[in-house]
Structures are given as structure tokens and as C-alpha cells.
Amino acid sequence: MAEAAEGYSVTIIRRREVTTWPKIGTPVINVLVTYVAAGLPPGTVTMAKADYSLEKEKAAIKADVQRRLAVSPEMYRV
After folding, report:
1. CB atoms within 10 A of CB 44
2. Rounded distance, CA 54 to CA 77, Å?
3. What angle do CA 28, 31, 35 make, to 5 degrees?
4. Coil, helix or strand at residue 9
5. What's the pLDDT at 57?
6. Mean pLDDT of the chain
7. Range of the domain at 47
8. Is the separation of the CB atoms in 45 and 30 below 8 Å?
9. 5 belongs to a structural domain
10. Closest CA to 19 of 35, 30, 3
11. Domain count, the chain
């Protein structure tokens, strides 16, 4: 998939909040954003709700798409 001048076209499938406890007694709310981009299976990015913004979401998704596109899948015939 080629990158357009503005970036990648993605569809947000779902945003949800999940509480984790990285330290006993200290809950942290994370936002999980599941998206799909052309040519890739659905992906999910995670960020702390305290740090969440739409701009940070877009940057995290763009970085994730670039990382995933850089990986060449292994293919063989069976």
C-alpha cells in the first residue's frame, strides 16, 4: 500500500477502555483503538487514557501501519 500525501486511510472499528493494574492497587485506564487499513488485517494500538487525544491516536496508528508494512510475510507452498 502506497502512502498518500496526507497519510494512510484507515477505518476505526472500535475504541474501548480497559483497566489494568500495573502496580497492585493502582488502576490505569487504557484506550484500545482497533482499526483496519487497506492491505492489512485489523490492528490495535493502546495508550493511557490520561495521555489520549485524537492527534496522538492518529500518530500511533500511523506508526503502527508503517511498522506493519515494513515486515515481509514469509510465504511458501505446501
Report:
1. 13
2. 42
3. 155
4. coil
5. 97
6. 91
7. 10-69
8. no
9. no
10. 30
11. 1
